[in-house]
Amino acid sequence: MAETEQQSGSTPEDEAPEEGASFTFMVPKKEISMVPDMGKWKRSQTVEKLMDLLGTLDRWINETPPVDQPSRFGNKAYRTWFAKLDQEAEALVSVVLPADKRAAAPEIAVYLKESVGNSTRIDYGTGHEAAFAAFLCCLCKVGALRVDDQLAIVFKVFNRYLEVMRKLQKTYRMEPAGSQGVWGLDDFQFLPFIWGSSQFIDHPTLEPRHFVDERVVNEHHQDYMFLECIKFINEMKTGPFAEHSNQLWNISAVPSWSKVNQGLIRMYKAECLEKFPVIQHFKFGSLLSIQPAKP
């Protein structure tokens, strides 16, 4: 996803036909530099169904207000919200699947339920985020989503997922799961920083140093996933950015977005995918198997 490219919208001079071929090659080029550009191309029906699914989860938060309790964090109303998802998950997933793949609903629903946090601890972290990525991966494997829908998957579906998770975190004051505190990248998320930094590669004016400028964040956050993450951090934390988000502060000194992107991918592999406390909770089935890859 580091440099996502689209073929639509190419002009005739971009085309490079190959002799004797019945189709035309064209030089791929970037078309999607910000979220509003998504309207340039057709969205698949499944993406719209996923947006409906996430809209349902959002509506349930409105219907399940926080309860009065002595503890400030971990509002127990979250458990009521989660119980509804636990009960309805298979039905929600079934609607998204092709008719001949509905038998996969119980397996895929597990990843959806794992992606919204832990109902016992009332916490959320990068392991839950990874479960949503696994959920989307399963939908690709059964043909509900196409891999070439990747721009819509990331900047529409995953973005909506982030909105719902932020609402959960704020409404029920969820604890960060396995937070590394000030030395972590972020209390709750990681993937939007990878995908968000890829959005900025080759940007003509905005450089990594700009994301610590609150004016830039407020002006551009609706167009860029990375800046939306920074805005949420600024809303949730007080004090100097360099103190409460030291890792991100250090990243802002990196000279280019491509270097930021590459570094974040390496960091995600080391800090999330290869960390036992995160992966011990990951569930494997037939679609995402733990069996070794065939040579």
Key terms for this structure?
295 residues, mainly alpha, two-stranded parallel sheet, 12 helices, globular, disordered N terminus
Q: Can I get a quick summary?
A:
With 295 residues, the chain is mostly helical.
Summarize the helices and strands and which ones pair or pack:
Elements: H1 45-63, H2 77-96, H3 105-114, E1 123-124, H4 126-141, H5 150-171, E2 175-176, H6 191-200, H7 214-220, H8 225-236, H9 241-244, H10 246-251, H11 257-273, H12 276-279
Parallel strand pairs: 1-2
Helix pairs in contact: 1-2, 1-5, 2-3, 3-4, 6-8, 6-11, 7-8
- Total number of strands: 2
Q: Secondary-structure element order, as H and E? A: HHHEHHEHHHHHHH
Average pLDDT works out at: 84
Radius of gyration: 20 Å
- Regarding quaternary structure, how should these chains be classified? single chain
Poorly predicted sequence stretches spanning 5 or more consecutive residues = 1-34, 37-42
End-to-end separation:
25 Å
Which strand order spans the largest sheet, edge to edge or round the barrel? 1-2
Largest sheet: 2 strands, parallel
Global geometry: globular
Question: Which structural class should the secondary elements be placed in?
Answer: mainly alpha
What fraction strand?
under 5%
Number of helices: 12
Helix amount, in percent? 40-55%
